[in-house]
Amino acid sequence: MRQTPLLLMMLAALGLGGCAGFSRDGGFDAVADATRAHLGKEVKWPRSAHAQAEVDAQVAGLLAHPLSVEDAVQIALLNNPMLQAAFQELGISEAELVQAGRLPNPRFDLRHASAAGQYDIEETLSFNVLALLTMPYARDIEKRRFAQTQNSVVQRVAQLAKDTREAFYAALAARESLQYLQQIRAAAETGAQLAQRMVSAGNWNRLDQAREQNFYADAAQNLTRAGLAEESARERLTGLLGLPGQQTGRPALQLAESLPQLPAGPDSLPDVERAVLQQRLDLQLMRMHIDELGKSLGLTKSTRFVNVLDVGAARVRQGSREEPYERGYTVTLEVPIFDSGAARVKKSEAIYAQAVDRFTQAAIEARSQIRLAYANYRAAFDLAQRQRDEVLPLRRAVAQQNLLLYNASLISIFELLSDAREQVTSVDGYIQSVRDFWIAKSRLDAALLGNSAS
């Protein structure tokens, strides 16, 4: 069938549109670069057995020694299956980007009718010209959506890092607390046994003996609760690291001996405006969404009156088989009589304005979140510092004086044991305050990145 120059030009454009392909890295390199810039950590997206084996070896190397918080974060970023699932969103978004750069396939229509040796045959080969005209706009929109997806994945990385840090500090604090509560129960058990012997010997009354026994029962219950809390915290950390947990033949997860010490002093309040304008990933994502909506609004306005436009070549035979084909072209065009597209434009304008208003409010809330996160961080530091520098020294001084009084037979063994229990309780309180400080520090860092969910 003879083709018109216009048809040849459109088919050539169709071939060019089909050349859009996938990138080598699938958009992952931008995510890896952002992770290094924001977190100083490495992420990998293994898409082969060999790449997965390399990741497994790296994780095994980190697990071979007691983990620091940075080791734990690195393992999570390499090994967490949910994060790997988030990386697959890059593949989905890139596929949509590639699809936006390809025109729809041409359409062939055949109409055939015959009667008494007479034929009515119409053959048409057409394609969507409007898709060709709007392809640059559609591809630009998908590029922005792809960038949004990359930014969203970086947010997921930052969220996982934050959650892992908090789970690590919680697991360490729970383990240390369990150890001190074991000491409290041991002291309570000693007091209860001694009180029982003294009552049996007639040297003590039943009321004081009941108090010691009650304290021992409370200490045993608290220890059981602490054991459950330690196991829960450890299991949460194990899950975030993407590990199957303790199994036969597999070494148990090793953590650092204790929580990190408090820094010499708290950090100063960050530059809130700079953080909001340059660092917040959520606001960057919203800005990208606004740009995308702006492009979509422009496309909606451009196609307001013409939403369907198909052009193609046609040949027609009417009569006997000996009759020649009539050659020509066909145009399919939507006539905007009942729908001028005003409703679609109005909707796009409202969606765009809505996104701008939401961004404005999000920026206000972001500033507030950073200030509040810093206030919590500073308060947590002050509480932990006071516990360390004032409460613990005073408790040790009281313990030393009580020991002197006991050696001088001025107080009983029960008073000495009670003081020892209170001293251990003070140490446990300090552990919790240090844990709260490091969690507050993690949440402040997350607020600066735009990932401040608790």
Concise account of the structure shown:
The protein has 454 residues and is of the alpha+beta class.
Descriptive account of the structure:
This protein is of the alpha+beta class. It is 69% helix and 9% strand. It is built from eleven helices and four strands; from the N terminus they run H-H-H-H-H-E-E-H-H-H-H-E-E-H-H. Strand 3 (309-319) and strand 4 form a beta hairpin. Helix 3 runs antiparallel to helix 4 (69-79).
Shape: elongated
Which runs of at least 5 residues are low in confidence (pLDDT < 50)?
A: none
The biggest beta sheet reads: 4 strands, antiparallel
Q: What is the strand content?
A: 5-15%
Sequence of strands across the biggest β-sheet: 1-2-3-4
What would the average pLDDT be, to the nearest integer?
80
Task: Spell out the helices and strands N to C.
Answer: HHHHHEEHHHHEEHH
According to DSSP, the number of beta strands is 4
Q: How far is the first residue's CA from the last residue's CA?
A: 67 Å
* Subunit organisation of the chains: single chain
Q: Structural class per helix/strand content?
A: alpha+beta
| Number of DSSP helical runs | 11
Helix content: 55-70%
Rg from alpha-carbon coordinates: 36 Å
Keywords:
single chain, 454 residues, alpha+beta, 11 helices, 4 strands
How would you summarize the topology of this molecule?
Blueprint (H helix, E strand, L loop, with lengths): L4 H13 L10 H12 L9 H15 L5 H11 L1 H20 L6 E9 L2 E11 H72 L5 H35 L31 H8 L1 H22 L6 E11 L6 E8 L8 H66 L5 H37 L5
Antiparallel strand pairs: 1-2, 2-3, 3-4
